[in-house]
């Protein structure tokens, strides 16, 4: 049986929503992953069922007569979104803004339209944010690379429609060695990491989103130094210019969908996706030889994300609560720690519970029955504390509009035992954009600000976006993670 949920606060990468990098993700049930919002060059979802999952745990059985194996959800594990004004495509230099095991942010500049005299105007800053569910090579901040991406901008996609083709690749230099890349539905686009050859049918199984339909799973001939045949959902080694690459594909065609519901979208799970990443043994010499440029003046920090995500299950939306919770155990389907909340009434016969989803190593799992105190301020923020008047252990927020409204500022001050908390605008991360081409009478898109957070300690503590900052509260050591791209999200934990 599913659970109803109230999101209280936190920072979560798990869903890779791409609409706002690092944004909080609402789960239908504990452990369920959120899918891509439909941005071009992002991780593709299977008819809204979520992005592709890594490994056997993310695979779904086909149940067909000829398909004995299991197959991953259609799409890539590697995706990208663009923040800033862009052209139709991009093929040029880029600087490393941020590099962690799950993220690679690149920065480049495009000139605005030339003035009537033909002189170029001020350069526009553009950020390409690449994310992967498992691991990416770590690149030094400020390193110079070469980026090919089609389209350069995020694509507007009608809800329910198949995602249009996209591709991007990152090289060590112009016409140099490929580091990583991905392409969907058209491997001839500029930016596709590898061309492909013949497709061959492997087996036929039932369509995952329409039982009356069928899907034909395929193998793909990937054209490297020598052709390599890779089947749907598999990863193979492909050699290109003497270097070895891990290449993963999904390849399938939907058939016999005539009896599916009228609003069924044929082709959403059809086509070929391909992603490639240079193997570690070949990556190191390429990375060590990268030249350096200047670091972007307005960029995110380089600390890995910290997840502090608290959510109430089986309770009324926007619940405000201050009371005891008791540890019940781990959720069997996720990394969440579950706590019983006896102070809240059951909903539909299901007891209220608190789910706490955290990055590894920041909070030791309690013993069953251990008591804590949770304080929620509606859905926007929550904290876990020691029982009674004990100290703060964990704190997380959803996306907060900046600068903070009075009620938000007051709730933050209460959560931090009287310490004021304010948002400080650092710079414009992306400039204002004109109305969309398909809506010329629509509003201009405002600039996206990069916000830091200032805590009223003595002296003040400035926590910058994308960084993990040490802070002392009530004489105890904490670390706080901030993501301030357009809105502000805060995750804080007591040092273990």
Compile the SSE list and pairings.
Elements: E1 5-9, E2 59-61, E3 70-72, E4 78-83, E5 90-100, E6 103-111, E7 123-132, E8 144-150, E9 166-171, E10 178-184, E11 196-207, E12 210-223, E13 227-231, E14 235-240, E15 243-255, E16 271-278, H1 280-288, E17 308-313, E18 321-330, E19 337-340, E20 353-358, E21 371-376, E22 381-385, E23 392-397, H2 406-415, E24 421-430, E25 448-455, E26 461-463, E27 468-473, E28 476-483, E29 489-494
Antiparallel strand pairs: 1-17, 2-3, 4-7, 5-6, 5-8, 6-7, 8-9, 9-10, 10-16, 11-12, 12-13, 12-15, 14-15, 15-16, 17-20, 18-19, 18-21, 19-20, 21-22, 22-23, 23-29, 24-25, 25-26, 27-28, 28-29
Descriptive notes:
- The chain is mainly β.
- It folds into two domains: 211 residues, no CATH class; 187 residues, no CATH class.
- Helix content is 4%, strand content 42%.
- The protein has two helices and 29 strands.
- The longest helix is centred in the C-terminal third of the chain and has 10 residues.
- The protein is globular.
- The N terminus is likely disordered.
């Amino acid at each position: 049986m599913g659970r109803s949920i109230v999101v209280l606060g936190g920072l979560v990468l798990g869903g890779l929503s791409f609409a706002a990098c690092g944004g909080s993700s609402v789960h239908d049930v504990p452990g369920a992953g959120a899918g891509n919002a439909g941005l071009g060059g992002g991780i593709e979802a299977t008819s809204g069922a979520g992005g592709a999952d890594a490994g056997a745990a993310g695979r779904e059985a086909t149940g067909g007569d000829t398909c004995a194996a299991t197959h991953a959800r259609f799409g890539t594990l590697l995706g990208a979104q663009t923040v800033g004004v862009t052209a139709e495509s991009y093929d040029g230099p880029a600087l490393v803004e941020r590099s962690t095991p799950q993220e690679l942010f690149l920065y480049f500049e495009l000139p605005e339209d030339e003035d009537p005299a033909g002189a170029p105007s001020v350069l526009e800053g553009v950020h390409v944010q690449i994310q992967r569910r498992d691991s990416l090579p770590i690149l030094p901040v400020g390193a110079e690379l070469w980026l090919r991406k089609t389209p350069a901008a995020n694509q507007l996609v009608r809800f329910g429609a198949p995602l249009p083709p996209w591709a991007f690749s990152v090289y060590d230099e112009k016409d140099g060695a490929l580091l990583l890349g991905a392409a969907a539905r058209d491997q001839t686009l500029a930016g596709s990491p590898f061309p492909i050859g013949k497709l061959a049918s492997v087996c036929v199984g039932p369509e995952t989103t329409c039982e009356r339909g069928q899907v034909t799973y395929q193998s793909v001939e990937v054209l490297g130094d020598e052709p390599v045949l890779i089947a749907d959902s598999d990863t193979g080694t492909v050699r290109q210019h003497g270097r070895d690459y891990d290449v993963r594909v999904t390849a399938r065609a939907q058939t016999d969908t005539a009896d599916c519901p009228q609003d069924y979208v044929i082709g959403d799970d059809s086509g070929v996706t391909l992603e490639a990443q240079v193997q570690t043994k070949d990556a190191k010499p390429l990375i060590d030889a990268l030249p350096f440029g200047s670091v972007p003046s307005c960029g995110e920090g380089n600390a890995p994300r910290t997840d502090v995500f608290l959510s109430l299950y089986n309770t009324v939306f926007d619940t405000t609560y201050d009371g005891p919770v008791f540890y019940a155990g781990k959720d069997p389907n996720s990394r969440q720690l579950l706590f019983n909340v006896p102070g809240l009434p059951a909903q539909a016969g299901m007891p209220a519970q608190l789910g706490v989803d955290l990055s590894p190593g920041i909070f030791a799992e309690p013993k069953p029955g251990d008591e804590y105190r949770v304080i929620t301020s509606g859905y926007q923020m929550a904290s876990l504390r020691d029982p009674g008047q004990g100290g703060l252990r964990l704190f997380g927020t959803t996306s907060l509009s900046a600068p903070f409204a009075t009620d938000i500022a007051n709730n933050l001050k209460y959560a931090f035992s009287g310490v004021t908390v304010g948002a400080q605008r650092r710079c414009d991360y992306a400039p204002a954009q004109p109305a969309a081409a398909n809506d010329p009478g629509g509003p201009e898109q405002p600039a996206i600000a990069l916000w830091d957070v200032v805590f009223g300690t003595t002296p003040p503590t400035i926590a910058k976006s994308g960084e993990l900052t040490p802070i002392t509260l009530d004489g105890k050591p904490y670390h706080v993670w901030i993501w301030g791209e357009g809105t502000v999200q805060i995750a804080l934990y007591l040092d273990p």
